[in-house]
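note to self: dont lose this again. the chain is below, predicted strucutre after it. 218 aa total, dont forget to put it in the shared folder this time
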Amino acid sequence: MVTTVLLGSTVLTGCSSDAGAVTTNGGAGAGAPSAPPATAEPASTLAGLIVVPAGYVKAGSPDPDQLTGPFDAESYLGTLSSTPSEDRALLLNASFIEGYQAYRVSADKKKRFTVQLFKAGSKAKARGLQQGFWQQDSHSRSFAIPGVPEAMTDARVVVSGSANRSEAIAEASFVVGALVAEISVHQTGEVTADLVPDTALISSIAKQQKALLTRNSG
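---
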């Protein structure tokens, strides 16, 4: 039986302070010291559960898909979803409760990092939501993440929308309790730039993100 989505009043908005923990820097995945979680009052119950790379900053763009903050079903479908009709059904069937996105860019503006959390009605429904999202795209090459063996992963290089430009993409998706974590790193450059998906960075962040969610899953 389909469960009705809980539509809260929370919408995707920019936040004045960083959410969650800031962690390792760059593509090397080295164990740089992590900064403590932000001390500001979280904007949602998920705000303090986000891990982002050290040295990455919030984007100055007004584009809604590049903002950091909480989202409900309608704000996700209206701003972040590339397939609203399909995603509406997925969220509905998952008894979606709330979500949060953190968007960051590297200091040199060459890489874009995104982590999204989706809270479903149960662990089983979270797995269904994860599978539904993952099956919407084609995937080229999976890679292993130490400490997160169950993660769905993909690394690929595609031609971007701009002429003579390509994009290297690394993605990871996993479930902890009733939460789905979706992480991606994008880098755009010239077709001749021999871009390589940053699997080292995403592996480091995914491992820390899973650890943080596991500690707070109750």
